Amino acid sequence: MIQITQPGIIRLGVLASGRGSNFDAICAAIDRGDLQAQIEILISDKADAAALEKASKRGISARFIDPNSFADRQYYEGEIVSTLRGAGVELVVLAGYMRLVGQVMLQNYRWRILNIHPALLPSFTGLHAQKQAVEYGVRFSGCTVHMVDEGMDTGPIIRQAVVPVYQYDDEDSLAARILEQEHNLYWQSLQLFAQGRVYLDGRKVIIRDESREEMA
Ligand code: GRF
After folding, report:
1. What is the CATH classification number for the domain harbouring 86?
2. Domain range spanning residue 41?
3. 171 in a structural domain
4. Other C-beta atoms within 10 Å of 13: how many?
5. pLDDT at position 212, please?
6. pLDDT on residue 210
7. How many other C-beta atoms can be found within 10 angstroms of the C-beta atom of residue 189?
8. Kind and range of the H or E run holding 41
9. 10 part of a folded domain
C-alpha cells in the first residue's frame, strides 16, 4: 500500500480548458480555510479559456501552452511537466481539461493527477456523460473524483457524489444538478491529500480514518 502525499499544505497545479467553475470552487475553499492548499499555477491548452482570466484575476500565475506548437504529445506534455515542476506542483488537478493524459505526464506525476468526471464511474465515461445518463434512463447519476491512469476515466476512484435523475431531465438540467455536487466533491477530495490520508492498494483507494489508527 502506498501513501500518495504527506500531510501539509499541498501545492496544486490546475489544468483547465474551459469556463473554470471547478477551479473557482477550489479557490473559494482555500480562501475559506477549508482546503489546506496553494494553487501554484493554472495551465490551459486553449488561449480563450475563461479559466485563464479567472486565475489572473486572482493573482495566480496563468499560462496558455499551445499543443499545436509542439511536434507531438510527448513534447507538449514535456513542456507541461517542466512548467508544473518549475512551479513546485505536487498534485495536478484536471478541471475540465479536455485532453487525454499521456505517458510523459503519467510517469512524472504517477497517481498524482486527479480528474473530476460528471458521472458515477465506471458508467458513462468520455464526453457528454450527463447526456449518456439521461438517454440510458438511469435513476441516479453523479460525479466522481479519480486518479488518472492510461485509460479514459478508468483510474482509481477517490470519492463520488450521487444525484437523482428525474423523468423530465435533459442534459442541461442534470449537468447543473451534478455541477453543484462537483463544487464540493473536488475540494473535499483534495483536502484528503492535504491531510495525508490517501493510500493506494492495487487499484483501490483507501482513505485513512482521521479519528482512528486503522484504515477506514
Ligand atoms: C465539469 O462538468 C467536469 O465534471 C468535467 O468538465 C466540466 C468542467 O467544468 N470534467 P468547469 O470548467 O470546471 O466549469
Report:
1. 3.40.50.170
2. 2-207
3. yes
4. 26
5. 56
6. 76
7. 22
8. strand 37-44
9. yes
Half-sphere exposure of residue 167: CA atoms within 13 angstroms, side-chain side: 0
Instruction: Tell whether ligand 1 has an atom less than 6 A from the beta carbon of residue 142.
Output: no
Per-residue model confidence as pLDDT tens digits over 109-155: 999 999 999 999 999 999 999 999 999 999 999 999 999 999 999 99
Answer yes or no: 117 catalytic. Answer: yes
- Closest residue by Cα to atom 8, ligand 1, is 96
C-alpha cell at 48: 480563450
Q: How many residues does the chain have?
A: 216
In a domain, 184, yes or no: yes
pLDDT tens-digit map of 75-114: 999 999 999 999 999 999 999 999 999 999 999 999 999 9
Residue 197 to residue 209: CA distance in whole angstroms: 7
Asked if the structure places residue 216 within a domain, the reply is no
- Check pocket membership of 181 for ligand 1, CB cut-off 6 A: no
The cell numbers describing 101, all together, are 493524459
Q: Which protein residue has the closest C-alpha to ligand 1 atom 9?
A: 96
| pLDDT of res. 27 | 98
User: Does ligand 1 lie within 6 Å of residue 95's CB atom?
Assistant: yes
- Total domains in the fold of the chain: 1
